[in-house]
Amino acid sequence: MNINTLNVSSKSANYKRGMHQKAASALLDIQTKSKESRVDTFTRSNRGNSVDSLSGSKAKMLDGMVGNDILDVFNFGEVIPCSNGIYTYKGISFTEKQIPKVDSIRCKEIKAENNIVTFERDSYYKYTTKDGIAHCMVSGKNSLNTPWSDAISGNADNVSYMTGRFWSLLTGRASVYISLDFSQEEQKRYLDKAGIKNGFFTVQVGDSKEKYYYSGGDTVIHPKWEYDEHFAAITSIGGLFSEEKPGDIFEIDGKEYVLSDKHTLYIPYGADIFNIQYPSKEASLT
What we know:
The protein is 27% helix and 21% strand. It contains eight helices and 16 strands. The protein is elongated and about 85 Å long.
């Protein structure tokens, strides 16, 4: 399965999904600077705000490819001005063809520690696919994106974009739309590859941090607030099972729990309450 492929059965569903994706992008783009925005819509243009306002006559044309120092300026620093396809920085001029792809050796692996995935601000990260190819990203204030230098030079790839989008969506309100862009299997693949275990986990990108629950149920990712509300509904009097029969047996995360006389389940906080099997109707009637 391609990493960004979702099968939709009708034109109506496609249209509805497209509208939701626009909403999700709008929510996500609110959190990002223009430099950190979606690179697949990047258009080359002459940008007037110069960090090194030098005339072409004073600048020296670079012989060869630019170094990591200039790549880092593109990805983490100022805006490098471009005029007629020529970039100029600190007295050196070069074209987009002289901008190399970010070397994956400089990138950190996406790995969880104690179920926390942290993307440090102004750092390079990589996602390695089954074919052994490393796809690089950069972390900003609150998003993970394709390197700006790769976008300019034409080295951007869709795997980098989709991987960055997945983790960026988990840093704020737009996470409610994650299932529109990623199937449940794709979500599991990202989480498992990062080493995240079932249960509560945290994603921090730059200055933004959110907590979730990784469930083995039909829906993989749940915001912590959703877990807390659902847990309260299961364990509180007058909650989710007010119409169920005391004595009914529910299976939660592989363990059986008996409904109390108060129509509540006594389960430990942190149990996978989304991975639940309800008692059969026949059992409830006996």
